[in-house]
Design a protein that fits this description.
444 residues; alpha/beta; Rossmann fold; 5-stranded parallel sheet; 18 helices; 10 strands; globular; binds 5-phosphoarabinonic acid
Length: 444
């Protein structure tokens, strides 16, 4: 992976970025030595090198169980950090049309990431006619969206195949000891995996939370971990600032923020990266958006969004910068055919690879946006595969920790996510919320 910040220097100088050298290095050390804010949630820092063979094999065994049983669908139930890491990985690594193609592994679908009645109805309707298993993921065990979805799915599966067989086909990933899901899993005798106490949801992609769904879908979790491990080595406390890509990325976006660039748009030129952006948005949004501070993380998929958001990026409010994930090699090759009529006047492209056109769109867009006042950071990865995703995930995580510390916030809590829950429970007349209920209903 490479980081290119050349197209930022017209907006903030390299000198300014490098003036964060000491602070950024200090914060990398603080992450490793657990001396900064939120230091009880730093288990993810050493995760890639600390995960043991026993755990990896146990994950692979469960994946083999579903594959050998010819389970057609595995429903992964979770939301936020218990969903986005695996969703991002599966979208990135799967065939674009996987839902319509055959595979020798179960098809992984998600639930519990919304409260849409139609979504759940249509899912249950699909499950009526397919064999399926469930992986339910919740650290707390009480998050409303996945808990509601799991109630429905558990009841459906038990009715369909009987309680005993259902127990065999349900796997729970949750806290080691506490919480409603741990209690239920113990009562029912589900197979379980642990979300470590010191790893928060949005930093959990390299725990069983991310690894199990990825393995079930047939992807190589060892390569993913290897990529993360190599990035851990490349961004550790012994690496000088000048060579530490994560520290440079954090310092660059911090200087851009101070210069008034308060929104960062993550851009991908492959639709498969859409959910990597969603994962990244949660990581940075929940980690930095607090105390009335923080860069607003947004995302676009290009070139599609050049025909919608492109106008705003080119000429709208100048408070934005872009970070482009640039992919060097595609998995497949297609050339554009010659057309004798040439009505679309595109014969100058005949014989060129589709990816060459995509790359020129990428470069042309970068220059146009920079000319329009939008600084551009480029993250270059060789290809979309397990190893490079592991690289990328760990890079963004460690950079997020450094970024949060540069900003002066605790990047590992999320106090703001409780406010909506309080109102929702009051509106739904949850016992204990009687007073809140009166107040909130009076405001509607
Ligand atoms: O990053 C986080 O901590 C959150 O997004 C949580 O992952 C999310 O709210 C789901 O929580 P839980 O796993 O407890 O159901």
């Amino acid at each position: 992976m490479r980081l290119n910040t050349n197209k930022v220097h017209d907006f903030v100088s390299e000198e300014k970025i490098f003036s964060n050298r000491d602070a950024a290095s200090k914060y990398v050390k603080a992450l490793y030595e657990k001396t900064g804010k939120g230091n009880d949630f730093l288990g993810w820092v050493q995760l890639p090198s600390a995960i043991d063979e026993k755990e990896i094999s146990a994950i692979e065994d469960v994946a083999s169980f579903f594959k050998n049983n010819k389970t057609e669908i595995v429903v992964v139930v979770g939301i936020g950090g218990s969903y986005l890491g695996s969703k991002a990985t599966l979208e990135a690594l799967s065939d674009n049309f996987w839902q319509m193609k055959n595979s020798n592994c179960p098809k992984v679908v998600f639930a519990g990431q919304n409260i849409s009645e139609d979504y759940l109805y249509e899912l249950l309707e699909l499950l009526d006619t397919h064999s399926y298993g469930i992986v339910v993921i919740s650290k707390s065990g009480t998050t409303t969206e996945p808990a509601v979805a799991f109630r429905l799915l558990k009841a459906h599966l038990e009715t369909k195949i009987g309680k005993t067989a259902a127990r065999e086909s349900i796997v729970a990933i949750t806290d080691k000891q506490r919480g409603a899901l741990r209690t239920l899993a113990t009562q029912e005798g589900y197979r379980t995996f642990v979300i470590p106490d010191d790893v928060g949801g949005r930093y959990s992609v390299l725990t069983p939370v991310g690894l199990l769904p990825i393995a079930i879908a047939g992807f190589d979790i060892r390569q993913l971990l290897q990529g993360a491990q190599d990035m851990q080595k490349a961004t550790g406390p012994d690496i000088p600032f000048e060579e530490n890509l994560a520290a440079i990325y954090a310092a660059t976006r911090y200087e851009l923020y101070k210069a008034g660039k308060t929104a960062e748009i993550l851009c991908g030129y492959h639709p498969k990266l859409l959910y990597v952006t969603e994962w990244w948005k949660q990581l940075y949004g929940e980690s930095e958006g607090k105390e009335n501070k923080g860069i607003f993380p947004a995302g676009v998929t290009l070139t599609a969004d050049l025909h919608s958001m492109g106008q705003y990026i080119q000429e709208g409010l100048r408070n934005i910068f872009e970070t482009v994930i640039s992919v060097e090699r595609t998995a497949h090759k297609i050339r554009i055919p010659e057309d004798p009529a040439n009505l679309d006047t595109l014969n100058f492209l005949s014989g060129k690879r589709i990816d060459e056109v995509n790359k020129m769109a990428e470069l042309g867009t970068m220059l146009a946006h920079v000319d329009g006042g939008v600084p551009n950071i480029r993250i270059e990865i060789p290809a979309i595969n397990e190893y490079n995703l592991g690289n990328l995930f760990y890079f963004f995580e460690i950079a997020c920790g450094i970024s949060g510390y540069l900003l002066g916030v605790n990047p590992f809590d999320q106090p703001g996510v409780e406010a909506y829950k309080k109102n929702m429970f009051a509106l739904l007349d949850k016992p204990g919320y009687e007073e809140e209920s009166k107040k909130v209903k009076a405001r509607i």
